Amino acid sequence: MLEYWLLLSSGFISATLLPGGSEALFLYYLAQDFSRKWPFFVAVTLGNSLGGFITYLLGYYCQFGQKKAAANYPKVFIFCQKWGYLALLLSWLPVIGDVICLLSGWLRLPRSQALLCITLGKSLRYLVLLLLFALAI
Predict the structure, then answer these.
(1) What string of DSSP letters covers the chain?
(2) Which residues contact 29 (CB under 8 A, 6 or more apart)?
(3) Closest alpha carbon to 106 in 68, 135, 134, 50
(4) pLDDT tens for residues 13-36?
(5) From the CB of residue 84, how many other CB atoms can be counted at a distance below 10 Å?
(6) Binning pLDDT at 50, 70 and 90, where does residue 118 land?
(7) The pLDDT value given to residue 94
(8) What integer pLDDT is reported at residue 66 of this predicted model?
(9) Measuring CA to CA, how many Å separate 103 from each of 43, 52, 89?
(10) pLDDT tens digit string along 43-90?
């Protein structure tokens, strides 16, 4: 049971503006007990999706750091404006994914679609890791 909380926490921390290593922990637990792959997958995906959505909400409500992010990442800003909530399908990308979430909130993209796209994007990342791991064993 502790493994699930650790995966959820690691996923959450990795999806906020703080550094984290949820992928390594996910692969570690898969190596320990592959039979629990789906609960591990759900825990890490839930944590990572919640963390991404919290970053989105920071942009939506707090207007914290968005001007600096827009200035430092003008291409990401333009990408978010052009693609709207669909840009959040790429929220799994390292570093830029956090910026996509933050700027998407700042642009006031629809919350329900944002949550859906963040969850889809992040779950696909862990699904690919799971499938690659399964092929390797």
Answers:
(1) -HHHHHHHHHHHHHHSSS---HHHHHHHHHHH-GGGHHHHHHHHHHHHHHHHHHHHHIIIII--SHHHHHHH-HHHHHHHHHHGGGGGGGTTSTTHHHHHHHHHHHTT--HHHHHHHHHHHHHHHHHHHHHHHHHH-
(2) 3, 7, 36, 40
(3) 68
(4) 988 766 678 999 999 999 999 999
(5) 15
(6) very high
(7) 81
(8) 67
(9) 26, 12, 14
(10) 999 999 999 999 999 989 987 666 777 788 888 889 999 999 999 999
Tally the C-alpha atoms within 13 A of residue 93's C-alpha that lie toward its C-beta. 12
* One-letter amino acid of 87: A
The pLDDT value recorded for residue 8 is: 95
Q: 68: which residues sit within 8 A by CB, 6+ positions away?
A: none
Query: Using CA atoms, how far apart are residues 27 and 109, in angstroms rounded to an integer?
Result: 33
Show the tokens assigned to 100: 């996509």
Instruction: Report the Cα 51 to chain-centroid distance in Å.
Output: 7
End-to-end CA separation in angstroms for the chain: 24
Amino acid at 14: S
